[in-house]
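Tokens for chain A. Residues wanted.
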């Protein structure tokens, strides 16, 4: 595990963008494509806008396939649909072809949406092991990541798949990558900033006795890949080591 801590948000985002480009270049050189999983929420929006502007000439984006690690159970035109933020901030500005974009079809019932998304991903990987080149993750102040929320049944799922989960505290369904699917990735990167995340960061990284039902991000430890945390000094302020 690599911990990278930055004094300012711009420094963090610039370094993370460089990291993404480097992984993308390597994947394209080796396999002629880059399978990149985006995270939702508000945290990565500025990063995506940087990639689609400042960094648009630094990668062959026609060879990038985009996925989303989790999705809210709202219509695709709803402001909180993760795919819509991705479309506006990176996919549309880079003119990504529709067959290179994999989003959750939330016009379906949640369970059906998860099944169909898992099928689409499996088809893309042509039946081979599903191992994304890079999965980008955020983390909430309750230590959830993707839609792996504290106390939810999906935390016990051992399958490499996409699953639906009911999040009681939000009174809604979500569709999410399971932890085993995330952990198959070649590279996983957390993007975390802000004082509100500091306590969760401390528990996830430094707790000697893990309790993933309370701190779900503790489940993330790639089997054969790298794990890197990109965070600011505010998010890391309670770390002792």
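Reply:
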């Amino acid at each position: 595990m690599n911990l990278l801590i930055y004094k300012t948000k711009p420094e963090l985002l610039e370094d993370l963008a460089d990291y993404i480009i480097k992984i993308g270049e390597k994947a394209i050189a080796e396999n002629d494509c880059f399978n990149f999983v985006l995270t939702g929420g508000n945290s990565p929006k500025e990063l995506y806008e940087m990639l689609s502007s400042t960094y648009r000439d630094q990668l062959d984006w026609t060879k990038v396939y985009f996925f989303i690690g989790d999705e809210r159970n709202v219509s695709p035109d709803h402001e909180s649909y993760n795919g819509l933020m991705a479309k506006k901030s990176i996919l549309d500005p880079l003119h990504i072809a529709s067959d290179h974009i994999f989003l959750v079809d939330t016009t379906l019932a949640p369970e059906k949406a998860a099944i169909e998304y898992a099928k689409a991903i499996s088809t893309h990987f042509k039946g081979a092991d599903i191992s994304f080149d890079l999965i980008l993750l955020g983390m909430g102040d309750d230590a959830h990541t993707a839609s792996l929320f504290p106390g939810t049944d999906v935390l016990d799922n051992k399958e490499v798949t996409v699953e639906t989960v009911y999040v009681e505290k939000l009174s809604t369904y979500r569709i999410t990558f399971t932890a085993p699917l995330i952990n198959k990735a070649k590279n996983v990167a957390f993007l975390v900033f802000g004082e509100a995340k500091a306590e969760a960061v401390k528990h996830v990284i430094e707790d000697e006795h893990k309790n993933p039902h309370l701190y779900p991000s503790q489940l993330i430890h790639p089997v054969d890949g790298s794990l890197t945390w990109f965070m600011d000094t505010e998010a890391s302020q309670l770390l002792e080591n």
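The CA atoms of residues 33 and 195 lie 37 Å apart. The beta strands are 2-6, 34-38, 64-68, 70-72, 134-137, 162-167, 172-177, 187-192, 226-232.
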